[in-house]
Fold this protein.
Amino acid sequence: MRIGVPREIKNHEHRVAMIPAGVGRLVADGHQVVVQAGAGMDSGFSDNDYITAGASVAESAKDAWDCDLVVKVKEPLASEYGFLRPNLVLFTFLHLAAVPELAWVLLKKQVCAIAYETVQLDDGRLPILARMSQVAGRVAAQLAVRFLQKENGTAFPGKGILAGGVAGSSPASVLILGAGNVGLNAADALAGLGANVVVLEASRSRVHSLKSSLHEHIDVVHFSDERLHSLLPDCDILIGAALVPGKHAPGLLKRDDVRKMPAGSVLIDVSIDQGGISETSRPTTYESPVYVEEGVIHCCLPNLPGSVPLTSTMVLTDASLPYIQLIANHGVDEAARLNAALSRGINIRDGKVLHQGVAESLGWKHQSVWSS
Ligand SMILES: NC(=O)c1ccc[n+]([C@@H]2O[C@H](COP(=O)([O-])OP(=O)(O)OC[C@H]3O[C@@H](n4cnc5c(N)ncnc54)[C@H](O)[C@@H]3O)[C@@H](O)[C@H]2O)c1
């Protein structure tokens, strides 16, 4: 199979979908790998590293896209739609519930679109998304701490609180919605600094299973609107980290709720890639990472791990490579038959929506996946 690795073009996206060691494994299995020049540079890999591993390096994006299987990090942007064509197998983060326009293009062009974020094990875990969410939770914590500072000369001064406090002062109060990979990693990082953290989680069984294993500054409790509303007036940092796989993020915060938060507090909506948990959330970019609504500093970056590529490229490719090898070695149909987790990753195939959560969020008809 001919496998393409284009350079990422999303704003400040520094990751790459495959490291040279991955190329080596695929080449050893008899595949051809085409990497776009410069694709790995920000992750610490030169074109020569890829050539040494057995790839050919293409100058143009077109050559990297002109393959049977294309592996990427982020969803195709409008300038890449021209590369999409029938029977192309595309394996990447897609988050289609938040980008219906792209879903429509993939349907119309009859692409086989497999989303990293819905590759799902039988026990419900999301093995590729989970690794990036661990990174994103920690980056979110770092950004929240920074935006809470009052820095002269910036357009968006935070409340001016040291997240962990010192003797004689109170630490920041943190509220996290969703006790999954993002939520718990953000909680761990912020509690480690000394902040007081409350995590509201919808799943009772998850709340119970976590109760005894967390840092003393972290309290995980069952989500209710009453609890949420009672915590908002004292909340310095709020992190959106709720997910129902494939679906639009749950709308947990209305504008009136955001208004209850103190002026200068910080909302990092990590769930923005699935559309965001707040009525006031809209995607931001690294060029302009924050905006203020109702006195609250909002940061809604859809590619948080992209800012730490030396960490996240290794972690991402470690999780995705086994599935890439399955597709390359068996073809997509047989790979999906052999591996139920991968089959759940297929969002769109032959002009049909195959993932139920994605179909429901887009209001489109769902067709069942062959092996699940
Ligand atoms: N912005 C980024 O760069 C970035 C990076 C990685 C992940 N993400 C996103 O972060 C979000 C969380 O990902 P994750 O891997 O932590 O998911 P996860 O599945 O590990 O955890 C999500 C948690 O949210 C809980 N939940 C669902 N509905 C809820 C509700 N109504 N109220 C409270 N809790 C609720 C679930 O029970 C689960 O425990 C996803 O949207 C993911 O795509 C964003």
User: Anything to note?
Assistant: The two ends are 26 Å apart (CA to CA). The first strand starts at residue 2 and ends at 5.
